[in-house]
Design brief:
Largest sheet of chain B: 6 strands, antiparallel
Number of strands of chain B: 10
Distance between the termini of chain A: 13 Å
Mean pLDDT of chain A: 80
Radius of gyration of chain A: 29 Å
Low-confidence stretches of chain A: 160-176
Structural class of chain A: mainly alpha
Number of helices of chain B: 20
Low-confidence stretches of chain B: 640-653
CATH superfamily of one domain in chain A: Cytochrome C biogenesis protein
Oligomer: heterodimer
CATH topology of one domain in chain A: Helicase, Ruva Protein, domain 3
Shape of chain A: elongated
CATH class of one domain in chain A: Mainly Alpha
């Protein structure tokens, strides 16, 4: 498990090859079939965005209540008219109010539910980054000759490698 | 008789808790060790009371004693035996009774486990906290949620039985107790956290004492959540198992903070850092179990799983507030001593990865909590009604899930203190190719969509890392390479990865269709043939079943049913599922056959990899059990946590 035996793992081209394979595979997986017309999976996708107003916490896709069935028929009718997904959702929210959309709105007070978590995570990330920055700048306690002697003595007594978690590898055996 | 027994049991429990606290506090203040040793007898008294009231309730349910209001409301002579037992936790009062019983059990377990150290103030304070929580729950049952309230039944009365949804599947007998074992189990580490703060022994001792308790509670909570998802899948009839419903979220929130804690606690054990953070996570986990109970038991949010009942809500909310205030107050009081010496040398290190893990889990919990309560907040502020549902949670939690998978791939190979690019490249080589292979395999079997494929690739990468660690560990230690926290943790990771893959695949590649068939007719959906053979009616003690016989692919006959419950006239569909390793075929019916044409409408749902969700859940639970075994002893010379007062005189805020 030493770095020397697997020198090619350290080569940039080996990892670039991997990146190219991944990128190609992801590119090949893009589904280009257009999403138009009446189609079961398209109806399902739209219906999962709509709340069944008669039910307790179910979407129009899940519910078997008469209203949900009626909604699904309406989706079919709209799909036949060639409307896009967004147009169909807008139709429902105009008729039944914002509540029918399971996605909260992107404007007004409701948009906070989207914005606040993003801001909070960004703030946490920045806070962590600045803490690490401060830790790096601060000079830690300097080790004295006695400290170094203590460590050296401890290391001489140490016969088994330390368990630093799963696998129990320690950094000093594998490089750096 | 049953009422009297039950109430007597509750009073014994309540009294045991109150006197127990009095005796322990007196012993602590006056320094009388013999008083502290009484914690075990009082815990046994509390348990005896709880057992007595539980027996009284079960006896009342069994005897159909309708003078007990709970049985009057939820019992029925038609309920089958197993569901009759489970009726206890099918409604509010009985579920609090179960909670109290489990809490009493944990209180005794702690007292027995620490019986030789009951004189230790740390253990004594922990027992005080356990008793205090016990006072709350028994007090709740003596007041707002009394399971033994009396009623005078009319002559010849027979009750309605539990909510039909809850007697439709056998998993209902196991899912709630499992979940409660998890919820209540977190009381133990919380009690020790309070004790550590109260005694000022905020070093790492209490963490090590409660490590297994926390893991066990977490394992039960995990199992409870997975069983709940399984129940939804088998009962609700739309092929789903998780829909970010408020009640599901309520169980998921403590799981998220508890998971964060299980990871960050390792930083504290090793480096003595993150003390305030870990205490906050533990207190938050316990507080969230109470908040979850409030959300689901007060009727403020609508949900299939919720039972609403008037005055319990404000009391639970009040208790939640007390828990938060006490936790924040205690942590603030000890703030100076909690300041930890030392610092993290590099973000590219094991402790850096744990920190990132915590940011992600905290963000996850925040998103789930905000999404759950947001409609309430908006409606309170400006009266606007809006919904926060699956699309919101999917979009917001997906990036977090991706980041967590990535972290799960990288973190296990990172060394403590400081990792280098060279080490990472060396150790991640095979796991990364594992990810690439998974991605290519998924592409080869026809998976589409770069997002889902990326999820599969990252899952393969993470699985590669976990397997690499297990292989290295078993090479060195033989079978012991599977036990211990680190190795068992890798097994848990594998279970999580299975669930992530199954979740991504089943939600992305779901196919649904509704077909209307006359008897003998056949329809084809997504390459499967469905032949409708006919319907028949079966009478059961508590319901009438209309069974639709459907032959799938010319082979086995599946029987989606409609169950009409005699009491209340509620009709529920019970789906029938053909489980397979690659995909499930799920059939449900929503109405009886047309009386004229004999046609029936069958809903067909085809979802890939669903079975791996349950397998993943089992793997996670087994991994948790493996983690409970003591692992290899750490090298005593390996750097452990720094001493409490900063020896070097250096302090970092």
């Amino acid at each position: 498990m030493t770095a020397g035996r697997h020198r090619w793992r350290q080569q940039w081209w080996a990892w670039s090859l991997m990146a190219v394979v991944v990128a190609t595979a992801l590119w090949l997986s893009i589904d280009t079939t257009p999403r138009t017309g009446v189609d079961d999976s398209r109806r399902y996708a739209i219906a999962t965005q709509l709340k069944c107003l008669q039910c307790v916490g179910e979407s129009v896709a899940a519910s078997q209540s008469p209203l949900a069935v009626q909604f699904r028929e309406e989706i079919d009718a709209q799909m036949r008219q060639g409307r896009t997904d967004d147009e169909i959702l807008a139709f429902f929210s105009q008729r039944y109010g914002q509540e029918v959309l399971l996605s909260p709105p992107s404007s007004g007070l409701g948009s906070l539910v989207w914005i606040v978590p993003v801001v909070a995570v960004a703030a946490a990330g920045l806070g962590l980054a600045s803490t690490f920055g401060r830790w790096r700048r601060e000079v830690g306690a300097r080790s004295t000759e006695d400290d170094r002697e203590l460590v050296a003595r401890a290391l001489r007594h140490r016969d088994a490698p330390g368990d630093d978690g799963p696998g129990g590898e320690s950094a000093d055996r594998t490089g750096s | 008789m049953n009422r009297a027994l039950g109430l007597a049991g509750l009073l014994v429990s309540f009294g045991g808790c109150v006197i127990g606290i009095g005796v322990l506090v007196a012993g602590l203040r006056r320094g009388r060790p013999h008083l502290l040793r009484l914690a075990l007898p009082y815990a046994l008294v509390v348990l005896a009371g709880s057992v007595l009231s539980t027996i009284a309730m079960q006896r009342a349910l069994f005897m159909r004693d309708y003078t007990v209001e709970f049985v009057f409301d939820h019992g029925s002579s038609a309920t089958p035996v197993l569901f009759n037992v489970a009726t206890m936790w099918s409604a509010l009062e009985g579920s609090i009774l179960l909670w109290g019983l489990i809490l009493a059990g944990f209180t005794v377990a702690v007292a027995v486990k620490f019986r030789s150290r009951l004189e230790d103030p740390l253990v004594a304070w922990a027992m005080v906290t356990m008793f205090a929580v016990g006072i709350f729950f028994t007090g709740l049952m003596l007041t707002a949620a009394n399971p033994f309230r009396g009623v005078v039944p009319p002559v010849g009365y027979d009750g309605p039985g539990p909510n039909p949804l809850l007697q439709n599947h056998i998993l209902m007998a196991f899912h709630p107790p499992m979940l409660y074992l998890g919820y209540v189990g977190f009381t133990v580490p919380f009690a020790f956290a309070v004790a550590a703060l109260a005694t000022g022994r905020i070093g790492e001792g209490w963490l090590v004492e409660t490590r297994r308790w926390t893991l066990l509670a977490w394992g039960f909570l995990t199992a409870g959540i997975v069983l709940g998802a399984w129940w939804s899948y088998e009962v609700l009839g739309w092929g789903g198992y998780w829909k970010w419903d408020p009640v599901e979220n309520a169980s998921f929130l403590p799981w998220l903070t508890g998971t964060a804690y299980l990871h960050s606690v390792m930083v504290q054990e090793r480096r003595g850092m993150l003390r305030v953070w870990n205490l906050s996570l533990l207190c938050a986990t316990f507080a969230l179990t109470i908040l979850g109970t409030f959300l689901t038991r007060s009727g403020v949010v609508e949900s299939v799983h919720a039972f609403s009942s008037g005055s319990v809500g404000p009391i639970l909310l009040g208790f939640f507030a007390v828990v938060v205030v006490v936790s924040v107050g205690l942590i603030g009081w000890r703030a100076d001593e909690l300041r930890s010496p030392g610092r993290i040398d590099s973000p590219v290190s094991r402790e850096g990865a744990f920190l990132a893990n915590n940011v992600l889990f905290a963000a996850f919990a925040f998103v789930v909590l905000l999404g759950t309560v947001f409609p309430l907040i908006v409606e309170a502020l400006n009266g606007e009604r809006l919904s926060v549902g699956v699309p919101f949670f999917s979009r917001m939690t997906m990036p977090i899930g991706f980041a967590l998978l990535t972290l799960m791939a990288v973190a296990p190979v990172l060394p403590w203190r400081k990792g280098t690019g060279e080490v990472l490249r060396d150790r991640l080589w095979w796991p990364a190719w594992g990810g690439v292979a998974t991605l290519l395999f998924a592409l080869a079997v026809g998976a589409t969509g770069p997002t889902v494929l990326l999820a599969f690739g990252l899952a393969g990468f993470a699985a590669g890392s976990a397997i690499r660690q297990l292989v290295l560990a078993t090479r060195r230690q033989g079978w012991r390479g599977f036990v211990g926290r680190a190795n068992g943790g890798m097994v848990v990771h594998l279970g999580t990865i299975l669930i992530a893959v199954a979740f991504a695949a089943s939600t992305s590649y779901i196919r649904t269709a509704e077909v209307t068939l006359a008897p003998g007719a056949t329809a084809t959906v997504a390459g499967h043939e469905f032949t409708y053979l006919g319907s028949r009616t079966v009478e059961r003690s508590n319901r009438v079943e209309v069974i639709t016989d459907v032959r799938v692919d010319g082979g086995q006959v599946f029987e989606p049913r409609l169950n009409r419950y005699r009491m209340g006239g509620m009709t529920l569909g019970t789906p029938s599922v053909r489980v397979g390793p690659t995909h499930d075929v799920y059939l449900s019916v929503s109405s009886s056959p047309d009386p004229v044409t004999g046609e029936v409408t069958i809903r067909v749902i085809i979802q890939p990899l669903v079975v791996w969700l349950w397998v993943g859940g089992i793997v996670m639970f087994v991994g948790t059990l493996l983690s409970l075994f003591p692992g290899r002893r750490r090298d005593p010379l390996a750097p452990a946590s720094a001493p409490v007062p900063a020896a070097s005189g250096e302090t970092v805020a």
